[in-house]
Amino acid sequence: EVQLVESGGGLVQPGGSLRLSCAASGFTFTRYAMSWYRQVPGKERELVATIFNTYLPTRYAPSVKVRFTISRDNAKNTVYLQMNSLKPEDTAVYYCSNEAGDWGQGTQVTVSS
Predict the structure, then answer these.
(1) Which of 41, 49, 79, 104 is a Cys-bridge partner for 6, taking CB atoms 3.0 to 4.6 Å apart?
(2) What is the pLDDT at residue 88?
């Protein structure tokens, strides 16, 4: 059974940082690109960042480029999203995906003073 479990969300002030983690199991992690998405109520889910299982460069949404960094630890079957200089508009539920149709349950990130 595929499982993707996100953690690390929370409440942070504007300008702050958070690091999200997504622990994967039930599939061969090294064979898949991994992505982070986010969704705000009433809006479509938005692709935030993708990291490939090859030497292809990582990809970011223009709104988070420079501020966010996606990485993966293949030994731990885990993908991370380091989020710096957070803004109120980054507030959303963040999901990870293995780009094979599997999703985690999401973790809430709230940026507010």
Answers:
(1) 104
(2) 97
Q: For 31, what's the count of Cα atoms within 13 Å in the CB-facing half-sphere?
A: 5
Tokens (6 digits) for 109: 């990130």
Calpha distance 97→100 (Å, rounded): 7
Contacts of 5-8 with C-beta under 8 Å, sequence gap 24+, read: 5/104, 5/105, 6/94, 6/95, 6/96, 6/104, 6/105, 6/106, 6/107, 7/107, 8/107
Q: Kindly state the percentage of the chain with pLDDT values over 70.
A: 100
33 token code pair: 């690109």
CA distance 97 to 112: 26
pLDDT in tens, 25-71: 999 999 999 999 999 999 999 999 999 998 899 999 999 999 999 99
φ and ψ of 106, to 5 deg: 95, 155
Closest CA to 24 of 79, 75, 85, 62: 79
